[in-house]
Structures are given as structure tokens and as C-alpha cells.
Design goal:
alpha+beta; Gyrase A, domain 2
């Protein structure tokens, strides 16, 4: 099943984060995202024509985050948005992060 067809499941902690190898395997499905912080986070920059387009993207990602119950860290300004995903409860990556990345890519593609 494609990541965009999945839904984030609540993570209450108490499980190990993905290993670096597991993160690389899931990362193949979202190739524009980079593994960072010793493979405990994924991040991607997005570029836009202006501030309004960046803000529209951020608002759509925010709505998705609320719908999925999984919230990224986002920094944005005129013509850009940088998105970072990781699962705070486990201090690392979970499949949810890659599900969100795939869905955020779809939002970015339509922007």
C-alpha cells in the first residue's frame, strides 16, 4: 500500500524508533526528504513564488497535521517552507513520519 493511502496511527511512546536502515528503506518512497540528526529526523525544503504561496502551503500542511494527529516542525517565510518530521514521543522516526512526508509531497506538488 502506498504511503499516501495510509493513515497515521497514534504513537504513545514505549516503542523503539526506526533503525537507520529501516528509515532508509522507507525513505525510498519519499526521495526528496533527507535523513538528518543521525537518522532520527527527515526534512525537506519547499520553494514557492511568494509569501502567500508559502503561507497557503503551510496552512494546508497544518490542516493535514490536525487530520492525521501528527505534527511537523515548520519554518517558513517569503518563498520557502522547511518541514521537519520526527516522532517526539520516541525521539526518532516512525512510519507516521514517512506517511506525512508522502502526503506533504502531494500538497507541495499541487502548490
Amino acid at each position: 500500500m502506498a504511503l499516501t493511502e495510509k493513515t497515521c496511527v497514534p504513537c504513545r511512546g514505549g516503542i523503539p524508533p526506526l533503525t537507520e536502515n529501516e528509515a532508509h528503506v522507507l525513505g525510498r518512497e519519499v526521495p526528496d526528504w533527507a535523513l538528518t540528526h543521525d537518522a532520527t529526523r527527515i526534512e525537506r525544503p519547499f520553494r514557492f513564488a511568494d509569501f502567500v504561496a508559502a503561507l497557503d502551503f503551510v496552512n494546508k500542511v497544518g490542516a493535514l497535521a490536525e487530520e492525521e494527529g501528527h505534527h511537523p516542525d515548520i519554518a517558513f517565510g517569503w518563498g520557502y517552507a522547511n518541514v521537519v518530521l520526527y516522532t517526539h514521543k520516541i525521539k526518532g522516526l516512525h512510519e507516521n513520519d514517512f506517511i506525512m512526508a508522502a502526503k506533504i509531497d502531494a500538497i507541495g506538488a499541487s502548490a
